[in-house]
Design brief:
Strand order of the largest sheet: 5-6-7-8-9-10-11
Oligomer: single chain
Order of helices and strands: EEEHHHHEEHEHEHEHEHEHHEHEHE
Shape: globular
Number of domains: 2
Number of strands: 13
Bound molecules: N-succinyl phenylglycine
Length: 370
């Protein structure tokens, strides 16, 4: 697209319920949206960095500064005619900062596709009109409260439950949920890197619950630890935080560090790299699923498009808007028999509702292309 200016929007969006993981509790999303205005179209991208650098090293204030001071100047230098496929190469000399890079690339990709009248799902090679929705359930205050929360989500229609775990909140809550809801419940757990290899025997106690997978039990950089752990568990290991790009995905699979991959576009630098990871996993018959980062409708629309690719054989953390927000910034995503419809309009197929965007906005920074 031929870009004229970029607008960086910051939004404050309270969560309907606090979301506790092994690394912290989120009560509100400080959202950074990138709007790219071109001659023929406007594109939107969402940065998935949280307010604090606890999930990974990125955080929203840092991503905002990164985009303003290091990423946009490099794109300006490349000229106003820019294609989403070129963004990764232009920004490659900047080390890391995948979430910041992904947000810009997503906005330009959306703008390109809107100008071409093509949906993100069809441009990526999507094959589904709707995607199965799972839900991620935070660490609760008690086991009865957890069982209640899971029951509520199952009543809503979610087809898979993911429980957040940490040392002290693992075998017992998983046993309670399995016992209460029975063997047919699709159940998985996510440790967000809270364990070490010394916990292998303890984690093997989860094997008897027939889990779909255990996600990221060990530290981000510990691929060899995950490979050792995989040999000691029956439960398949899925990696999230560790998979920062296609090269790491290949390395992790070659080493046997995981047998399932969580794909999050923000974590890997964008939807184009996310598709590369999908394709290489698909070739190897490695199941993948789409992770979530408490996105608004902007990021969710793009995730749902990604999850429409053929290799996404497991339900993703692609929940309905109301699981997170009283009011989404776009038209809300709603659950239909446990699925979300894949948007069919050009680009990501949704856009912020202007009045809602204005109400949620805490700051707005316009940057002319120069
Ligand atoms: O449904 O968007 C969602 C949340 C899914 O559990 C989820 N995300 O580790 O994958 C994760 C986790 C997360 C939450 C990560 C908050 C970072 C912050």
């Amino acid at each position: 697209m031929r870009v004229r200016r970029v607008v960086l929007h910051r939004l404050a969006m309270p969560l309907v319920t606090p979301f506790r993981t092994s690394f912290g509790t989120e009560t509100s999303r400080d959202v950074l949206l990138v709007e790219v205005e071109g001659a023929d179209s406007i594109g939107w991208g969402e940065c998935v960095a949280m307010s604090e650098p606890l999930y990974s090293s990125e955080y929203v204030e840092g991503a905002h500064a990164m985009i303003r001071s290091h990423l946009l100047p490099r794109l300006f230098a490349a000229g106003p005619d820019i294609k989403a496929e070129d963004v990764g190469g232009i920004l490659a000399e900047v080390k890391g900062h995948q979430m910041a890079k992904a947000a810009i690339e997503a906005a330009i990709l959306d703008g390109d596709l809107r100008a071409a009248g093509l949906s993100l799902s069809s441009s990526l090679g999507g094959v589904r009109e709707r995607v199965a929705a799972g839900v991620s359930v935070g660490i609760a205050t008690s086991i009865p409260a957890l069982v209640d929360a899971v029951g509520g989500y199952l009543d809503d229609g979610y087809v898979r439950i993911k429980l957040k775990i940490e040392p002290g909140w693992d075998v017992e809550p998983v046993a309670a949920v399995r016992e209460h809801f029975g063997p047919d419940l699709s159940l998985q757990v996510d440790a967000n890197a809270a364990y070490t290899l010394a916990d292998a025997a303890h984690l093997a106690r989860l094997d008897r619950f027939g889990l779909l997978l255990i996600e990221q039990p060990l530290a981000e950089h510990d691929l060899s630890g995950h490979a050792s752990l995989a040999r000691r568990l029956k439960t398949p290991i899925c990696l999230d935080e560790s998979i920062t790009g296609a090269a790491v995905a290949v390395d992790a699979l070659d080493r046997g560090a995981c047998s399932i991959v969580n794909i999050k576009a923000g974590r890997v630098g964008g939807y184009i790299e996310a598709k590369v990871i999908h394709d290489l996993c698909f070739e190897r018959a490695v199941p993948v699923w789409c992770g979530g980062m408490l996105e608004t409708g902007i990021g969710r629309a793009a995730n749902v498009a990604l999850a429409s690719l053929p290799g996404f054989s497991l339900p993703g953390d692609t929940s309905a808007s109301k699981r997170y927000f009283q009011r989404d910034v776009t038209e809300p995503f709603e659950l239909e028999s446990g699925h979300l419809a894949v948007p069919t309009g050009p680009g990501i197929g949704v856009a912020p509702i202007p009045e809602v965007l204005e109400e949620l906005t805490t700051s707005r920074e316009e940057i002319p292309w120069r």
